[in-house]
Amino acid sequence: MTKSNERKLTIARAMAEATAQEMRIDPSVFVMGEDIGPLGGVYGNTRGLIEEFGAERIRDTPISETAFIGAAVGAAQDGMRPVVELMFVDFFGVCFDAIYNLMAKNIYFSGGNVKVPMVLMTSTGGGYSDGGQHSQCLYGTFAHLPGMKVVAPSNAYDAKGLMTAAMRDDSPVVYMYHKGLQGMGWLGTEAGRLCMCRKSPTRWKSARPRSCAKARMSPSSVVAWAFTTR
Questions:
Q1: Active site annotation includes 134
Q2: In this structure, is residue 189 part of a structural domain?
Q3: What CATH number should be reported for the domain holding residue 131?
Q4: Active site residue 178
């Protein structure tokens, strides 16, 4: 009997699997954000990580986005590979300088002597009566800013591959997941977001920059990046 090469997996579990696998092989990877520890993230995408890796590498933070995203930039420049969660993309307004001036451009400010290998993961979209300031899709806002790559997975297979590639990239990646696809772990809606995920090894590789901007699409997942030009 031929074994199936697929299994059912949510995007949240795919993200957690990718993060755990990378943390097992690379001690410089750690996760930081609000409610990502014992709660496992409000979307379930860090569930189980603190039990395996402890509070030293799965760091719950206060509601202080400017502080912990700025700290992640410093850690990345110092040789770590932080994965930091901005719980709602709408909150970028309070920490935008740390994102698009520090995270995205310090590699340029240093003349290429400093790398910023960090992942900023954040949720988009609505559907849970969260209000207008918690429900926006701001993909274009980030995709048009130089110095960072933006990914938006539409399924569990792409979610895992893109997360792995993002953590291995030496430049900053903004990883945007939609709440309607993700489900809300703390509301118990994640289970309804099951989809098929192939078991074959991930083949996603970090894209290298070309000229000014480029976008690539798989069925619905999007990878985009923008770079400054001379």
A1: yes
A2: yes
A3: 3.40.50.970
A4: no
Please tell me whether the overall predicted TM-score, pTM, comes out greater than 0.70 for this model: yes
Residue 56 lies in a domain: yes
Kindly state whether residue 1 falls inside one of the protein's structural domains.
no
Instruction: Give me the number of domains the chain comprises.
Output: 1
**Whose CA is closest to 37, among 14, 21, 22, 53?**
53
Q: Which of 17, 22, 34, 65 is catalytic?
A: 65
- 184 or 196, which is more confident: 184
The C-alpha atoms of residue 133 and residue 119 are separated, in whole angstroms, by 23
Tokens 């949240």 belong to: 12
Domain hosting residue 180, numbered range: 6-226
Given the residues 134, 144, 178, 190, select the one marked as catalytic: 134
Structure confidence by residue, pLDDT tens digits, 193-224: 444 445 544 444 433 332 222 333 344 455 55
Calpha distance 49→30 (Å, rounded): 10
